[in-house]
Predict the structure.
Amino acid sequence: MQGYLDEASRSTGAHRGGYYRTGDIASRDADGYITYVGRADDVFKSSDYRISPFELESAIVEHPDIAEAAVVPSPDPMRLSVPKAFVVVRGGTEPTRALALRLFQFLRDRLPRYKRIRCIEFAELPKTISGKIRRVELRALEVSRRAGGARVELEFWEQEFPELSEAGARQG
């Protein structure tokens, strides 16, 4: 690739040190295996941890009732931001509070505490013509909602489920 058509500024930033910089982030372990982390523009910080939406989305879609998911940062006064999942359910599944609870419980077994999804919203995902999820739209929507204090009907926050608390887990 020689560069971006009619976008010289993007082409200049993409070619550095003899390499083409894609904007993808990966890690290499001690054995040399490479693991895809996500896009540089999608990775966000929560309580000073770098969170990869790709990793969280992969865990969410392992649930049998979930067809698709997109994770974006939701502004948070204490943690800077927290992971929020926009989720599409499989056909024949109803997006309910009970399903949100099951999904929160499912993810607790698969993700470390600092990567936990803190909010689930059942919604259709905005996509490009080629079918790629438009996270930029979801991020902007989430920022505007939090700034305005808006609530959505099919939005569920982890703290709304007492059965997820440590005490609730011991009793249940």
About this structure: Residues 135-148 form the longest helix (14 residues). The chain is about 25% helix and 30% strand.
